[in-house]
Amino acid sequence: MDVSIAIDCMGGDHGPSVTVPAACAFLSRDPVAHVTLVGDPAAIEPLIERVAPAVRERMRVQPATQVVGMDEPPANALRGKKDSSMRVAINLVKSGEAQAAVSAGNTGALMAISRFVLKTLPGIDRPAIATVLPSLRGHSYVLDLGANVDCSAEHLLQFGIMGAMLVSAVEHKDRPSVGLLNIGEEEIKGNDVVKQAAELLRGSGLNFYGNVEGDDIYKGTTDVVVCDGFVGNVALKTSEGLAQMLATFLREEFKRNFMTKLMALVAMPALAHFKRRVDHRQYNGAVLLGLRGVVVKSHGSADAFAFEQAIARTAEAAGNRLIERIGERMAVREEVA
Prior knowledge:
CATH class of the largest domain: Alpha Beta
Pathway: Lipid metabolism; phospholipid metabolism
Order of helices and strands: EHEHHEHHEHEEHEHEHEHHEEHH
EC number: 2.3.1.274
CATH topology of the largest domain: Isopropylmalate Dehydrogenase
Largest sheet: 11 strands, mixed
Structural class: alpha/beta
Catalytic activity: a fatty acyl-[ACP] + phosphate = an acyl phosphate + holo-[ACP]
GO molecular function: phosphate:acyl-[acyl carrier protein] acyltransferase activity
Keywords: Acyltransferase, Cytoplasm, Lipid biosynthesis, Lipid metabolism, Phospholipid biosynthesis, Phospholipid metabolism, Transferase
Number of domains: 2
Number of strands: 11
Helix content: 40-55%
């Protein structure tokens, strides 16, 4: 895909040792994409010295002298680090030198800097964080995952529009289904904000399914699941904790005695296939929706494979006019209103 992506090479738990090899792997599988590696040249250039010429000619290094710490307050990063690798990468999106940016750095700082530099699209009050989760039918997109703890019904409607446009762009679906996360499917259930949001979504022209419950996320009932950031973050962390617990229990049971170890050997092919299906690394890359540019947040502890998936997700969103789709949809809504 012919896109240009700015990569914050210094962000995340591992920095250039992960981000640069991931960028090289991405360019190897995408023969027309370009990347700008943002960060300390002394740390980046040794890692690309032996890269194949066909890949090397589609990357350049953009120096940045500062790094935003993973636990640094967003206000400090915003005001005090104007030459950080994160800030420079986002500046490249604003100037048009890159179509999108991706970072594994501090989430709060990335959201604050992106919102300050790029601003929100017309009609969008607040950006939201959207990610993809595995389901029985493939995967579902969920937003918001923590950017907005308190939301109004109007905010949830905007999340629904942005989520639908995201799925249209990256999954190529004309009318993706949208569900509203609630404590029951019935229209009478939920608090006032959720009930009001359901009414707005029904009249929005989106393919609104109605209320969905927590287990519908993993059933794949709808393409998009909308909720406020408080609920979304709790649901995500609960899911991660449950998955870790089940994996630990499984390992303990297979190691219990000689017979269980033998059974583990027999079951190894099925276990390996199961592991690939639920491998969270292939879903890495949460999109910051609602901004005047594509920005993707990778998990901070991502390895090279996971960060490569985040870069690919960034390219998919930028190459399929995500920002324009959201802007056009919001413009139509403004005209109707």
